[in-house]
């Protein structure tokens, strides 16, 4: 299993770009080649404070990479993370959508997925999405009614059924299948102007 990272957020992408790290290395390299801070700052177009900061960091810590930052406090504790990592290792094909409620984690599935990726574990995506139930249909109907779309959808659906029936009954073998798309008149596909709106 991959080595797990310590707590601490990854620094912003800008601070870890290769050209940014390279420039810091150039600063240190020129300093080690006995070039003065003023010369380095003038030739690279940087402030003296920036040049001194990276030279000091190199002398104190031996590197010029960006340190991990604390940022916002984590919503998950070390115990939550350990529980998550153990569950993900035991059931590697479970998704973050299923692991989050199963483990009663105080975070979103997105945060769970981030924790798994940061620790080196794979975050799975279901191959097949869950089917919509009748509950979903009941939830959509009030929204459609509010926006005046339900009646419009009913008219288009009945017109398409009748047109499809005519097309199938009168279809010749050489009729192209995309002819059906030209059957619907433009005015049937326009949204109603009346009805409630936001």
From TrEMBL:
Query: What sequence ranges are listed for the domain Transposase Tc1-like?
Result: 86-136
Pfam families to which the protein is assigned, alphabetical: HTH_28 (PF13518), HTH_Tnp_Tc3_2 (PF01498)
Tell me the superkingdom of the source. Answer: Eukaryota
Q: What Gene Ontology cellular component terms go with this record?
A: nucleus
- Where do the Insertion element IS150 protein InsJ-like helix-turn-helix domain residues begin and end? 23-74
InterPro entries reported for this sequence: Homeodomain-like_sf (IPR009057), InsJ-like_HTH (IPR055247), Transposase_Tc1-like (IPR002492), WH-like_DNA-bd_sf (IPR036388)
Native source organism of the sequence = Petrolisthes cinctipes
Where the protein is mainly located, per its record? nucleus
One GO biological process term: DNA integration
An MF annotation (GO) of this entry: DNA binding
Ranked from the top, the taxonomy reads: Eukaryota, Metazoa, Ecdysozoa, Arthropoda, Crustacea
Tell me what this protein is called.
Transposase
Compartments where located: Nucleus
């Amino acid at each position: 299993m991959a080595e797990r990272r310590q707590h601490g957020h990854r620094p912003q992408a800008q601070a870890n770009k290769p050209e940014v790290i390279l420039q810091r290395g150039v600063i240190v390299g020129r300093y080690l080649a006995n070039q003065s801070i003023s010369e380095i700052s003038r030739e690279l177009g940087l402030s003296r404070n920036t040049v001194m900061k990276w030279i000091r960091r190199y002398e104190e810590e031996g590197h010029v990479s960006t340190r991990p930052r604390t940022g916002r406090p984590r919503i998950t504790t070390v115990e939550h993370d350990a529980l998550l990592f153990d569950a993900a290792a035991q059931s590697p094909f479970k998704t973050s959508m299923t692991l989050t409620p199963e483990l009663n984690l105080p975070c979103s599935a997105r945060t769970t997925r981030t924790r798994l990726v940061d620790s080196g574990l794979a975050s799975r995506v279901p191959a097949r999405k869950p089917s919509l139930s009748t509950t979903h249909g009941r939830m959509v109907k009030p929204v459609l009614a509010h926006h005046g779309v339900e009646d419009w959808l009913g008219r288009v659906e009945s017109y398409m059924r009748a047109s499809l029936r005519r097309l199938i009954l009168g279809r010749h073998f050489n009729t192209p299948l995309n002819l059906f798309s030209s059957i619907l008149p433009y005015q049937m596909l326009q949204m109603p102007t009346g009805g409630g709106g936001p």
